[in-house]
Design brief:
By secondary structure, the protein is an alpha/beta fold. It folds into two domains: 3-248, Alpha-Beta Complex (2-enoyl-CoA Hydratase, Chain A, domain 1), CATH 3.90.226.10; 252-305, Lyase 2-enoyl-coa Hydratase, Chain  A, domain 2 (Orthogonal Bundle). It has helices spanning 3-11, 15-18, 66-80, 106-111, 118-141, 157-163, 191-199, 202-211, 217-222, 233-248, 252-267, 270-284, 288-298; strands at 41-47, 50-55, 87-92, 146-150, 153-155, 167-171, 175-177, 215-216, 228-230. The strands form two sheets. A six-stranded mixed sheet has the order 1-2-3-4-6-9, with helices on both faces. A three-stranded mixed sheet has the order 5-7-8. It binds ligand LTDHYY67. Ligand LTDHYY67 is lined by residues 3, 60-61, 63, 99-104, 110, 129, 132, 153, 155-157, 179-180, 183, 188-189.
């Protein structure tokens, strides 16, 4: 039976979904005591101070169900507070990066929020949307650089997700699709806000968003959506891990301050951003990391040979 047919059938049993509210910010209590234990995300240590987060619903092409939206928030909040982690690689298990929102599970809950009248339903719908936005904004709020490693399809919410990452690598077989218009809606969890700042070609962004046409990896590279294209998943992951490892070896004060200021500057004027970094660095320039880094450079050593305190 086609996916679309099953989605439509599922929507006919809306009453079972009426009580269901998207809870995008789950409490830590649900997770138990073990660290990085998630049902839809697999987190592993790729190398020293580098974590590998995999979207882990390969049998559903990593379609984003309720648990995945919630666990993204939990996971990246956990990473943000983990002083053993300095950089992250985000990829998809199986044959796709992601097929976007889980049409079976989320479509009904999203379109039919609970509420006694239109105002209350709208109120709850807004809460769901804001909650879903947090699932990707949390990547941006996490001060550790996040490298998206994309292979195969990256559809709908997948584009929202990778737009919140700091660096994007992909495979030759990767393709990108801002699918929302073809689903009858405007994208609302980050693509329309972040993609224009990444690609820097408003005409192309508009075309992609209005038409839902697929963009293949070569075009993604040419327009600046991805930094590098690799022949296959294995070489892409190796490239992403090497990059993450290089970043992770540097002063975490310098790297994380840089991410925070890059994100701030993207959203503010040059003059506001200069003010911000001046205030930021009035404390951060007092770090021991400067002395250590300069000394290493003078001795022609790599930052890998320097021991920086955890942050
Ligand atoms: C608050 C709102 C926030 C966000 C909104 C976001 C909007 C979007 O994300 S829009 C994009 C929605 N996604 C799609 O339209 C993609 C749908 N999938 C496909 O078109 C195809 O699966 C494919 C990606 C082209 C790959 O095709 P193929 O290689 O032939 O695999 P399939 O047999 O189709 O799929 C394998 C398996 O995965 C299930 N699946 C695929 N996509 C989804 C999905 N989006 N949701 C749920 N399940 C999905 C598919 O049903 C198959 O499962 P089986 O159990 O094996 O049948």
């Amino acid at each position: 039976m086609s996916l679309l047919r099953r989605v439509l059938q599922k929507h006919q049993s809306i009453p079972s979904l009426l009580g269901l509210q998207l809870r995008m910010m789950a409490s830590d209590a649900e997770k138990g005591s073990s660290s990085y234990a998630y049902s839809t995300l697999k987190v592993s240590q790729a190398s020293d101070k580098v974590l590998h987060v995999e979207l882990n619903r390969p049998e559903k092409l990593n379609a984003m169900n309720l648990a995945l939206w919630r666990e993204m928030v939990e996971c990246f909040n956990e990473i943000a507070g983990d002083s053993e982690c300095n950089a992250v690689v985000l990829s998809g298990a199986g044959k796709a990066f992601t097929a976007g929102i889980d049409l079976m599970e989320l479509g009904g809950a999203l379109l039919q929020p609970p509420g006694d009248d239109v105002a209350r339903r709208a109120w709850n719908l807004r809460k769901n949307i804001v909650g879903a936005q947090e699932s990707f904004t949390v990547i941006e709020k996490c001060s550790k650089p996040v490298i998206a490693a994309i292979h195969g399809p990256c559809i709908g919410a997948g584009v929202d997700m990778i737009s919140a990452c700091d660096i994007r690598y992909c495979t030759q077989d990767a393709w990108f699709q801002v699918k929302e218009v073809d689903m009858g809606l405007a994208a609302d969890v980050g693509t329309l806000q972040r993609l224009p700042k990444i690609i820097g070609n408003q005409s192309l962004v508009n075309e992609l968003c209005f038409t839902s046409r697929k963009m293949m990896s070569d075009e993604a590279k040419n327009c600046g959506l991805v930094g590098r294209v690799f022949p296959d998943k294995e070489s892409m992951l190796q490239g992403a891990f090497d990059l993450a490892s290089d970043i992770a070896s540097k002063s975490p004060v310098a790297v994380q301050s840089t991410k925070i200021n890059l994100v701030y500057s993207r959203n503010h004027s040059v003059s506001e951003s200069l003010q911000y970094v001046a205030t930021w660095n009035m404390s951060m320039l007092q770090t021991d990391d400067i002395l250590k880094s300069v000394q290493a450079a003078m001795e022609k050593k790599k930052t890998k040979d320097v021991t920086f305190s955890k942050l």
